[in-house]
């Protein structure tokens, strides 16, 4: 037989041996959309009817195998209710079962990424051959759901319950060596040998060397565990996985429960249990929020690709100012393959920057992420210098000197004299106006902001700030460089604090107001952490640095005096005057000591209450809901102001900036998802309760109009 579709083709390799190749037309990757699933069903039906068929190889004509389901199509099933979703899942199960039930041995040649539904198809075949550079996994928990096309059923039977818990409940992508060790694949070969190795394995099965039927029996039968083994396999896992996932993310714990329920069943009953487990999760709010974030992330990447298509590639970068930040920028650039000059005015700063890069690389080496050769290659891409001698060849310069407008302006003007006329200058500033800094330059069109978040190697967001005179070409090159560094760039327009810090300081204003009203900062931290923030506002200020926050607070107060200025001494002012800078000097709202792993551990400090007396009002009890409302209302309103003023181009970009920049709780979907889910009318009513607290708590006129009209920001779309 021969089959030629828009996503799949089937050809006979040799007498009785067939190859089913995934090659989705006009797409860079293969994914399971309705077209692909429909063609797979038709092709497998035809293969099942071939007389004397000896074997089928499943392969890909693209660099990846199959990256998963097309979430834009699949997520539409979530709105059909539990019964509709279960029916839809079972339709796909029938296709994958038909693959598993073909009257001949089957092998998957995994040449690249095989994730989610892509890996679940691999599990439906009898054997899997994997290329050394490929990755496989079931990342569904990251969208708040569980594998729904057989992963819950087949993977535990292949690799054991404990391994399956780790794979499924973490959603981790596994490299070839780890996959082979756990038994998820049967062979690992060089990339260019994957197809040939798969065909060879098929021939050996047909010759009787391997018992593929026995393999199927294991996958389709109940797992044999006695009562003690059941308890050891599941009850301990429930406690550990539930505690690690926390109360806001039910998918990992649900996965354990579904594996437990289904492992004692035969395939067809187990598949129904799997579908029911997925449907139970899909009806909850977390899935909607996390799938929405996935869609927004795809939209943000699409926007970035639009810029990158117009940009010249950065072949040589430079960073001004070594130190911790400069060393972090240099490490990130070098580790992603872009050579970088690291300039400072003294040797000690250069050494600090190199030490930072070496420390990060040593960590990668220790964890097995790189080998010694890769470490040496990366560090050799960083060239320290005390002069501008080689700057004529640089495509883009990141200025990362001290956060002082006069110093930055002087350094930028000096640097401009030593770089090519078309080179881009970018300032890594968190608060200083790009328009103001541009006044010192002869070519302001080649200048923009490039705000990295600390620590550079961990924080995914980069704000690319457009000034009044910044050219499109400058923005495009800077976005392209940020993407090449593995970051998520979001373009914003210049204003005090740009986007993230502008939104963050009203949040801190809400915190300051609570303390003035007599709240205990420890309670506020605990409440906001239970709400979903990775750290409460007091702890966050300690991590940011009270000195940094104090400077930014002054910038924000000057920029938006009607909302962000304050009379008298604030809590940030008091902590700054006491030189309690947080983790920088091991004392802030909390005290800090290094733990056994060399990380700063947060510890209570009983001296703080007396030190902040007078700034904190007479103690009073606040209920959790009031704390949440007084913290969240200013943040949400300021984010909306940034959208209305054009500081950020879309709700999607704003939501992703909040997630990636300040750790907005992902399960709440971002600020605009949070507002849409609550309803603007309900939000405005909530804000009205705090009208006496001032302009930070006053929704904009447009918000009130939208509330009256019942409209939303996202309208169920990415942007």
TrEMBL record:
Its EC number is 4.2.1.17. GO terms for cellular component: fatty acid beta-oxidation multienzyme complex. Keywords: Fatty acid metabolism, Isomerase, Lipid degradation, Lipid metabolism, Lyase, Multifunctional enzyme, NAD, Oxidoreductase. Residues 317-495 form the 3-hydroxyacyl-CoA dehydrogenase NAD binding domain. Gene3D superfamilies: 1.10.1040.50, 2-enoyl-CoA Hydratase, Chain A, domain 1, NAD(P)-binding Rossmann-like Domain. The keyword Thylakoid does not apply. GO terms for molecular function: 3-hydroxybutyryl-CoA epimerase activity; delta(3)-delta(2)-enoyl-CoA isomerase activity; enoyl-CoA hydratase activity; long-chain (3S)-3-hydroxyacyl-CoA dehydrogenase (NAD+) activity; NAD+ binding. It catalyses: a (3S)-3-hydroxyacyl-CoA + NAD(+) = a 3-oxoacyl-CoA + NADH + H(+). Residues 497-592, 627-710 form the 3-hydroxyacyl-CoA dehydrogenase C-terminal domain. Pfam families: 3HCDH, 3HCDH_N, ECH_1. GO terms for biological process: fatty acid beta-oxidation. Pathway: Lipid metabolism; fatty acid beta-oxidation. PANTHER family: TRIFUNCTIONAL ENZYME SUBUNIT ALPHA, TRIFUNCTIONAL ENZYME SUBUNIT ALPHA, MITOCHONDRIAL. In the N-terminal section; belongs to the enoyl-CoA hydratase/isomerase family. Belongs to the enoyl-CoA hydratase/isomerase family. This is enoyl-CoA hydratase. It comes from Amphritea opalescens. The gene is fadB.
